[in-house]
Amino acid sequence: MDNMITVAVDAMGGDNAPVEIIKGVVDAININANIKIKLVGQKDVINSELSKYTYNDKNIEVVNATEVIATEEPPVMAIKKKKDSSIVVAMNLVKNGEADAFVSCGSTGAVLVGGQVIVGRIKGVERPPLAPLLPTMKGVTLLVDCGANVDARPSHLVQFAKMGSIYMENIVGIKSPKVAIVNNGAEEEKGNMLVKETFPLLKNCPDINFVGSIEARDIPNGDVDVIVCEAFVGNVILKLYEGMAASLIKAIKDGMMSSLRGKIGALLVKPSLKKTLKELDGSKYGGAPLIGLNGLVVKAHGSSKAREVTNSIIQCVTFKEQEINEKIRKAMSVEEVADV
Amino acid sequence: MDNMITVAVDAMGGDNAPVEIIKGVVDAININANIKIKLVGQKDVINSELSKYTYNDKNIEVVNATEVIATEEPPVMAIKKKKDSSIVVAMNLVKNGEADAFVSCGSTGAVLVGGQVIVGRIKGVERPPLAPLLPTMKGVTLLVDCGANVDARPSHLVQFAKMGSIYMENIVGIKSPKVAIVNNGAEEEKGNMLVKETFPLLKNCPDINFVGSIEARDIPNGDVDVIVCEAFVGNVILKLYEGMAASLIKAIKDGMMSSLRGKIGALLVKPSLKKTLKELDGSKYGGAPLIGLNGLVVKAHGSSKAREVTNSIIQCVTFKEQEINEKIRKAMSVEEVADV
């Protein structure tokens, strides 16, 4: 039982809780019997849903939490007041070493606040970023930070670059990942104040493979592996990415269905279209990790289905196996020594 | 000849200069004989290209400018040093009242700097924004600012909202245009410092129809008419919009062409696909105006073809006919009085 990994899962968070969450959990333990799940939430609701499945009950433990944090609640207040919410209870499991990781499809704000306040930062990490994998034409690119730290400082972005590189190298398996900073032009004199101050720091950072600026237009090409930016900008990138894909695909489908000829053609292109869209579907990578905490916290999309929940749990296994946090801890302590 | 409008056109700027520029110019005067074009650039190059067309030579005048500003040149320096460049010469035509407007597909930086330094701002306008029309599922949305003023202040964004509303109401014909601010969440407590400070100012601004925050995900839906944001964020939105569209369409086409079945289907869906893409093609609206200057400056895409050049010129006509600058001047002077 040495190589067991314990993942706390928020049974109450997200648009499809608890049905899809619990389906995803059962799928995960069926894929990997070394995963132990602590399903956190309202016991009766969870047990009633769990009763629909057959599974090895050694792999699932239900941890009762009577309260639920809603998406629209102000996160700081919610974390403070709702001590018996699924998010707070699960975060405490990670804090106390009773779980290695936590997966939630619930309130992003509450997960971010709880991650910092309850789970806590790795020593030396100034701001833990939320880092989703964006699907691109050539694979995936890690976007750091997509929403944890608005109005970040240059030193934060440098840490994002380092931690993002460790993640891409060890989780996705890309040697010496290429790092770029989001900019409003390719030339070195371009940028807002934050980018202008950060650029030389990244350029002179020996631990990363910095390749310069990237314009938003080139992000979908997938030529770089790690993209760093301030969280407000990252949030715009992530959400526009999702919105554009959904809108364009809808427009193309509607266009095809507006004529008989198009309808027949649509039937024929359906398999290839489906394959293309599947390649561009981020859910196969699971949710976004909040990197730099004493334990792993993964925030999956509020609209996640079982598949994304399963993949988020599987991602936790790789994260632990590859000892990502030990590597981050080491990188940050080297930095501290270098600072002296 | 009272209703003639004179448009200076940069014959040397952009990837397709001078061929597509001159084709676009000839098309424009053939559509509207009340347009007088001052084609600015190297006389010999222009005349040799013009000789390919038949047109009424009262509608085109060639203005010699020996220098060209390249895209990669630092803009402030270029505007200062290259006094005989097409951009500087054309901007001076606008400044001196010898042209009503200026259209360029050349260096964005040089056009922005020249607009402010040579053409000059309308009294009361703090920062003139660059405002392209984004194609959406329901029509178009004006994005202010997409690149002129990084690190803008709250008062700038309020002016963007006012000027953007005047533009949408009078050029696109939308009564009481809905204004939203780009934010990283829909809730009022969301935002970076700039957004948090700007939000109440917009909410209390009587001249605009402010509807609150918009998340980047919802921009393609086209539910609002004017979107305000700081230029770095706007640049990311504009460029990711272009990049996502191009990448997705390429992926879908490649996907179809990878099987015989898909290829036959592709032939059948081609007309509807073409129609959909045409609806989403921003070039029919021409370039982006730099709003708030003493004269109109339109920056068209560097990769513009004749069609975008023509439409940019036609846009100048509506701009003058609708007396946009007089309306902005009035709105800004009301503001000044209110400030006292």
Order of helices and strands of chain A: EHEHEHHEHEEHEHEEHHEEHH
Helical/strand content category of chain A: alpha/beta
Radius of gyration of chain A: 21 Å
Low-confidence stretches of chain A: none
Largest sheet of chain A: 6 strands, mixed
Largest interface comes to: A-B, 67 and 67 residues
The counted number of beta strands of chain A is 11
Helix coverage percent of chain A:
40-55%
Distance between the ends of chain A: 42 Å
Strand content of chain A: 15-25%
**Number of distinct helices of chain A:** 11
Average pLDDT of chain A: 92
Main-sheet strand order of chain A equals 3-2-1-4-11-10
Q: List the quaternary state of the chains.
A: homodimer
Task: Give me some keywords for this one.
five-stranded mixed sheet, alpha/beta, homodimer
Outline:
By secondary structure, the first copy, chain A, is an alpha/beta fold. Chain A contains 11 helices and 11 strands. In chain A, α4 (86-95) runs parallel beside α5.
Describe this structure in words.
The structure is a homodimer of 340-residue chains. With 340 residues, chain A is an alpha/beta fold. In chain A, 46% of the residues lie in helices and 16% in strands. In chain A, the strands form 2 sheets. A 6-stranded mixed β-sheet of chain A has the order 3-2-1-4-11-10, with helices on both faces. In chain A, strands 5-6-9-7-8 form a 5-stranded mixed β-sheet, with helices on both faces. In chain A, helix 4 runs parallel beside helix 5, helix 6 packs across helix 7 and helix 6 runs antiparallel to helix 11. Chain A is globular and about 60 Å long.
